[in-house]
């Protein structure tokens, strides 16, 4: 019999604190410590190579996470010359900053469809997710869907990572604010194909607790679908660095605890943010 994950405000706060701690300490290389991953897909887009002469962040091997003293506050400032001003520049950043399956965690694999680009998730009053063209203030948005395969009696966990470039910081901040309102407006959301999110609760993390982004929010709830093996945990986070947002979603499966899902989401979130910094520094 499956255990249904029913988040309370206390649970959401506790798990959000765990996300903060994990993402604050996670990362790649020399540093010490993304909607929903399931709306109907647009035609898939092929990843674009990084410009010649400059290696892509996603081409670098993932280094083990390191743990060290955290800064008192997040103090990264993007180089104005590195902030994308055109759609083409934004597409380069989103592809470079995104994760491939092995970059997230060894053993993860591509979902089908794998990539979605050039469209925007929309949640109308019906609370059924759909996709539309990019809003005027968004230069590019790119999603990859990546799964942890079923193994040792545990089900297949479905994840996604999204990188979005806005024309300005105000647009990126508005995206975060709108996201919180969505969970209140539609606590039950339909993803298509019989997939559903319910009991959704969102919250912004306290800025003083966020050590690797200008802002971060967290959402949790219950996921169910044709192959979910019953109701499962669901976690999702979104962060902002300047005009760039990153999002990670993880849909649970049989045999995986909420702590497992949080750890997966936190690992991907930390790596995405670090790669965004590489693109903007």
Structure at a glance:
The protein has 281 residues and is α+β, with helices and mostly antiparallel strands. It has helices at residues 9-25, 87-97, 101-104, 169-185, 258-280, and strands at 109-117, 119-122, 130-133, 138-148, 157-166, 189-192, 195-204, 215-224, 232-241, 244-251.
Helix content: 25-40%
Q: Which radius of gyration do the C-alpha atoms yield?
A: 17 Å
- Specify the number of helices: 5
Side by side, the strands of the main sheet go 1-4-5-10-9-8-7-6
* CATH architectural category: 3-Layer(aba) Sandwich
Distance between the termini: 50 Å
Average pLDDT for all residues: 82
Largest sheet: 8 strands, antiparallel
Describe the structure.
This protein is of the alpha+beta class and 281 residues long. The chain has a single domain, classed as Protein Transport Mog1p, Chain A (3-Layer(aba) Sandwich). The chain contains 5 helices and 10 strands; from the N terminus they run H-H-H-E-E-E-E-E-H-E-E-E-E-E-H. An 8-stranded antiparallel sheet has the order 1-4-5-10-9-8-7-6, with helices on both faces. A two-stranded antiparallel ribbon has the order 2-3. Helix 1 (9-25) crosses helix 5 and helix 2 crosses helix 5. The model is unreliable at 1-14 and 25-68 (pLDDT under 50).
């Amino acid at each position: 019999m499956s255990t249904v994950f029913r988040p309370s405000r206390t649970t959401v706060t506790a798990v959000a604190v765990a996300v903060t701690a994990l993402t604050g300490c996670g990362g790649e290389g020399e540093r010490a410590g993304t909607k929903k991953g399931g709306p109907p897909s647009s035609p898939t887009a092929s990843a674009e190579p990084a410009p010649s002469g400059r290696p892509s962040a996603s081409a670098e091997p993932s280094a083990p996470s390191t743990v060290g003293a955290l800064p008192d506050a997040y103090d990264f400032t993007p180089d104005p010359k590195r902030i994308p001003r055109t759609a083409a520049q934004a597409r380069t950043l989103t592809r470079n900053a995104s994760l491939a399956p092995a970059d997230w965690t060894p053993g993860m694999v591509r979902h089908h469809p794998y990539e979605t680009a050039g469209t925007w998730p929309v949640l109308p009053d019906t609370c059924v997710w759909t996709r539309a063209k990019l809003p005027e203030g968004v230069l590019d948005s790119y999603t990859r869907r990546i799964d942890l395969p079923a193994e040792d009696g545990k089900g297949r966990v479905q994840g996604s990572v999204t990188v979005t470039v806005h024309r300005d910081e105000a647009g990126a901040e508005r995206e975060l604010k709108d996201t919180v309102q969505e969970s209140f407006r539609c606590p039950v959301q339909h993803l298509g194909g019989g997939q559903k999110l319910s009991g959704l609760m969102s919250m912004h993390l306290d800025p003083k607790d966020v050590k690797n982004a200008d802002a971060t929010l967290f959402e949790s709830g219950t996921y169910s679908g044709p192959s979910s093996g019953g109701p499962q945990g669901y976690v999702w986070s979104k962060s902002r660095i300047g005009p760039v947002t990153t999002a990670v979603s993880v849909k649970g499966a049989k045999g995986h605890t909420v702590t497992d899902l949080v750890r997966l989401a936190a690992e991907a979130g930390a790596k995405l943010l670090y790669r965004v910094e590489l693109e903007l520094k």
